[in-house]
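Budget justification aside, the reviewers requested a transparent look at the raw inputs and outputs of the sequence design task funded under Objective 1. We therefore reproduce one unedited record. The lines immediately below are the structure tokens for a 347-residue chain.
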């Protein structure tokens, strides 16, 4: 059991570390890495094999032949990119405060709905800082969005052919194309260091783990098991909180109805007087009592009868409509009426 928890923890830990890698680093690494690049236009598909940063024209054919074209290519790279034309992306230049530079992902995620015709969930998107002046308090950011409606069918075609697309590649006119990541959870799976660097990388990695990473890993391991224990008690804690909230509501109601409202008596006696005074065809949706003034909101077949009933009651005086009477869809008249309470013992 302990081995399974440790394995789960380390998978989570690696995922957290990858999430801190800046997008521009991932893009630079992806552009320089081996990749299979697919372009789908109308009913035609074109495939390039990019190795050591150099793309080689591989094969082209009908969409239906994509799986056959892929199977004919030996040693296909793990990184798969879907190439888009420049006009398939909507580009928007934004001027933002420089203070938002470190939190652009969250900021631009909210800006998509304001600055484009789409919601964030309807697009794949990325951005690049097109202008930055250290002496200025503003930065210029180019936001790029691609509607999912036009891309998801292409991703499905690739998936049915056995190709999992990691990112969209789109030319924005710069020295290198921009990448719009589809799923960053598997970004480490395609990173393949040169064989001659593997021993050196392994040694350096072992030293880093021993000297720096291991203490933090142990601390995170303790936190991981603590969170597991907290999660185990989560349902009981939520149930206890719900019971406590319900009990507080009941206690507040009991205290309100039992509390004396000065010379006007208790809230319970006021509620009894209202019930006795109102016509049988009258229904209340709200009742409030403050400083001897009663406000009623509800509906009746004839709202004018409410004023008449309160007028003849010995518990109330000066009843008036607080707003115009409105006829509802159910032929009931909606009203808001206020009246003063007659002080207890007054003639």
């Amino acid at each position: 059991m302990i081995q399974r928890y440790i394995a789960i923890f380390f998978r989570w830990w690696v995922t957290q570390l990858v999430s801190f890698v800046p997008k521009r680093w991932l893009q630079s690494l992806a552009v320089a890495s081996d990749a299979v690049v697919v372009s789908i236009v109308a009913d035609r598909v074109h495939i390039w094999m990019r190795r050591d940063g150099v793309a080689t024209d591989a094969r082209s054919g009908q969409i239906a032949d994509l799986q056959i074209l892929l199977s004919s290519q030996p040693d296909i790279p793990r990184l798969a990119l879907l190439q888009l034309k420049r006009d398939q992306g909507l580009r928007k230049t934004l001027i933002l405060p420089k203070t938002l530079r470190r939190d652009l992902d969250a900021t631009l995620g909210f800006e998509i709905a304001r600055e484009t015709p789409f919601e964030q969930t309807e697009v794949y998107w990325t951005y690049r800082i097109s202008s930055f002046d250290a002496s200025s308090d503003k930065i210029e950011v180019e936001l790029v969005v691609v509607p999912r409606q036009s891309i998801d069918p292409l991703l499905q075609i690739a998936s049915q052919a056995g190709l999992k697309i990691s990112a969209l590649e789109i030319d924005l006119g710069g020295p290198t194309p921009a990448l719009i990541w589809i799923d960053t959870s598997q970004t480490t799976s395609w990173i393949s260091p040169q064989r001659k660097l593997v021993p050196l990388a392994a040694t350096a990695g072992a030293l880093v783990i021993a000297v720096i990473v291991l203490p933090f890993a142990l601390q995170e391991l303790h936190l991981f098991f603590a969170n597991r224990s907290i999660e185990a008690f989560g349902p009981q804690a939520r149930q206890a909180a719900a019971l406590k909230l319900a009990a507080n509501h009941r206690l507040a109601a009991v205290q309100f109805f039992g509390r004396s409202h000065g010379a006007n008596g208790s809230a319970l006696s006021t509620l009894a007087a209202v019930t006795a005074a109102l016509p049988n065809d009258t229904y209340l949706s709200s009742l409030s009592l403050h400083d001897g003034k009663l406000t009623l909101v509800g509906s009746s077949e004839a709202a004018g009868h409410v004023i008449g009933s309160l007028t003849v009651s010995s518990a109330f005086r000066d009843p008036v409509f607080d707003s115009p009477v409105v006829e509802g869809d159910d032929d009931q008249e909606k009203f808001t009426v206020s009246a003063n309470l007659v002080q207890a013992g007054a003639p």
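The two ends are 80 Å apart (CA to CA). The first helix runs from residue 2 to 19. Computational costs for records of this kind are itemized in the attached budget.
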